[in-house]
Amino acid sequence: MSENQAELSLRKKEHLTICEDDSAAFKTVATGFDNYTFLHDATTEVIIQNLNLESNFFGSTVAYPFLISCMTGGTDEANNINLQLAEVANSLNIPLGLGSMRYALESRDYDIHLKGIKKSAGISPIMTNIGAAQLCEGRDVSQFQRLIDLVEASVFIIHLNALQELVQKGGEPSFPGLMQSIEFLAKSLSVPIIVKEVGSGISKQAAKRLLEAGVKGIDVAGAGGTSWSAVEIIRNRDDKNNEFWDWGLPTSYCLKTVNELKEFYKFTLISSGGVNTPHDAAVSYALGANFTGSARKVLQALNASGEEGVISFITQFIEYLKKVLFLTGSASLAQLQVGKLIRKEELI
Predict the structure, then answer these.
(1) Domain boundary assignment for the chain
(2) How far is CA 190 from CA 51, 128, 153, in A?
(3) pTM score of the predicted model
(4) Contact between 22 and 297 (Cβ < 8 Å)
(5) pLDDT per position as a tens digit, 124-177
(6) Lowest-confidence range among 68-77, 185-194, 270-279?
């Protein structure tokens, strides 16, 4: 293993350790989900037992509109984590996101493990990803296509992490030609592209530029959950009062505003970034999300109770959503997105 690979592996291990608890959560910025409640329908006629939450995920039918967000990769621990989460995804028939595949760009040492993850996931869609910095290095498209082929990915995710790179020691806060590269990849790869932030959110203006470039999915990954600048601040042992700990746009704001673009573009809107509770997820759908995703809480459930713990965690989200649909008189997620939310300030 080269020195760069060793450093990368160590950083990933440190990321996993820091995310085992809530030490890297936002301090003062919230997702905004708690600002909303649902419009109760006392005359509901929805038959809760008949609710069907099957959803289309880029051509694949999945059981629920919930995905396991990209976490990590490139370490022995991460390989084991992804194998376990692949089993969960297979059991529930939901999409699984793999962590950054940068390490697989540099080495074929992990090819067997990655193929094993796909085997464990069965028919569940796999998402593979790479960071914006690697995208801007001028690599040949074939290198990215190899990653897709390796895990038979249904989607290719590009992570935008400008703040994390800025704060990270040895980071790469330089993205020349980013939009041009995204547009080229969108035309060249065999699968659709999702662009995902890592905790600072995607604005409506940025989302519009991405959609114009050919992106088919926006994962807003807003502020209020894990602060990846905080992760790096903790790694650096820097001052925890760093003003960029809480930088970002709340997830609910990103969802509400980016959803407005559906009037002009066809794309999949994903809510992540502090989707920690079933209520967070339900509000996300009502604000326009087609899918919700979680990473840190899934990791914590896995650490605490193994695969069964993750299945239980996700199942709670689904059962809560069905109850919300019933109580709001919504026979589908589409109906939940039409006038079923109230800002709590309106109740006074």
Answers:
(1) 3-347
(2) 34, 13, 10
(3) 0.93
(4) no
(5) 999 999 999 999 998 999 999 999 999 999 999 999 999 999 998 888 899 999
(6) 68-77
Write out the two tokens for 240: 């925890």
Q: What is the pLDDT of residue 25?
A: 85
Handedness of CA 251, 30, 274, 236 (dihedral sign): positive
Question: Is residue 220 within 8 Å of 250, Cβ to Cβ?
Answer: no
Q: How far apart are CA 65 and CA 70, in angstroms?
A: 16
Running DSSP on this structure, what letter comes out for residue 226? Answer: B
Residues ≥6 apart with Cβ < 8 Å to 53 = 63, 64, 65, 318, 321, 322, 333
- For 173-205, b/e burial (b = at least 16 CB within 10 A) is eebeebeebbbebbeebebbbbbbbbbbbbbbe
Structure token digits, residue 198: 């890592």
Q: How far apart are the first and last CA of the chain?
A: 62
- CATH superfamily for domain 3-347: Aldolase class I (3.20.20.70)
CA 325 – CA 51 distance, rounded (Å): 8
Q: How far apart (Å, rounded) are the C-alpha atoms in residues 15 and 148?
A: 24
- DSSP E strand stretches across the chain: 36-38, 55-57, 60-62, 66-68, 96-100, 126-131, 155-160, 193-197, 217-219, 268-271, 291-294, 341-343
Beta pairing partners, 194: 157, 217
pLDDT on residue 248: 95
